[in-house]
Amino acid sequence: MGHLSKLVKHLRLRMLLLVLGLVSCQPATTDLSMITPSTETLVATLAPEVVAIPSPSITSPPPVSTPSTAGWILYQSDTYFYLINAGRGGSTRYQGFDLSWSPDGQRIVFTDRKNIYVMHVDGSGLTVVTNFDKSDKEGVRFYPHWSPDGKRIAFWSSDGFYYALYVVSADGSDLSYLASIGLAGLGYKEPIWSPNSRQIVYSRTSEHEKRPSSIFIIDVGLGAGKHLTDRGDEYCLETCPSDFDPIWAPNGQQIVFTSTRDGNYETYRINSDGSHEVRLTDDPAYDGELNWSPDGQRIVFVSARDGNPEIYVMNADGSDQSRLTNNTAVDGQPAWSPDGQRIVFASARDGNDEIYLMNADGSNQIRLTNTPTEEDGHPIWSPQLEGNN
Q1: Model-level pTM?
Q2: Most buried of the four, 226, 243, 310, 374, by CB within 10 Å?
Q3: Are 153 and 167 in contact (CB under 8 A)?
Q4: DSSP notation for 180-247
Q5: Pair type for strands 199-205 and 298-303
Q6: Residue 370: partners with Cβ closer than 8 Å, 6 or more residues away
Q7: pLDDT digits over 145-198, tens only?
């Protein structure tokens, strides 16, 4: 059924095993030995290198209703990513993984698993911003994330033994090492920059398995970090509490995250200095996949409280939780438009994973993609709407 359906099956099986005491609540980590680039890796020189790529292929799904806001959306489909216009439809295909927008919406950063690349939205100006060559056979680079000031890119690198957090200037200069953690310690998502581009937050564990995971925050300039949440470092005999998927509020003052500390997946909010931690959701089903609205007043999230994963929205304090989608399939991976008027998400409601749009109140749900032979997911809206970039 695709990424979303597999997630549901995984979660249901995991919760059953939790009840039986057979697995821990520790977030699963990726077996990097199973990941290999699907195309010939480009070798970067000591300086950033501009390389040529084939002309992109263009697909044209059926026309969609013109939304109230239009702009560009990136999404992943197997080993390819697509750039699609929210108002006009149609899409342009490129090969790569782990997408992130530049803050001005003019460029895209991605990886081929060996190196980090940047290109313009029209596919021009493809530049290698890291210089890991093909002799580094075990090395994998992933989850690049652009800083809000547009100057730097943070990403994870692995040599097969450890995950290392790096920061590099957007032009490929000034590669800097920040931190490393064991293979059991990677969180679910990319390193997330603070709105002022001074700090990065991520989830990490001890270097040993069967240890709790916590939210960790690091000062990029100083290279010093600390636990924002601290689940302790004691060995877990049965289950380990896990805090993961941290997301900064637009004002930089708060962070929301998902945790299994109470035996199931719930959502929490904490001040960025580690104070005033509060629980936002409270039910026995899965709650997660948090995303702040651009004005910081609302949070969109996914919950299985009504029998299957649906998209919900709540106020930033956890009040007024309401369901936006309602069908028997899996809806997930919600992301806001930059004006907060619309939400893009992935759904399997038509038999396979496709990209959909809806108004922020759940009305006017329309399908944006129509690719029955592919599984589309992980949509992210450009920071700029058309006419503003």
Answers
A1: 0.80
A2: 243
A3: yes
A4: EEEGGG--SS--EE-TTSSEEEEEEE-SSSS--EEEEEEETTT--EEESS----PPPSS---BEEEEE
A5: unpaired
A6: 61, 62, 354
A7: 999 999 999 999 887 777 889 999 999 999 999 987 766 555 446 799 999 999
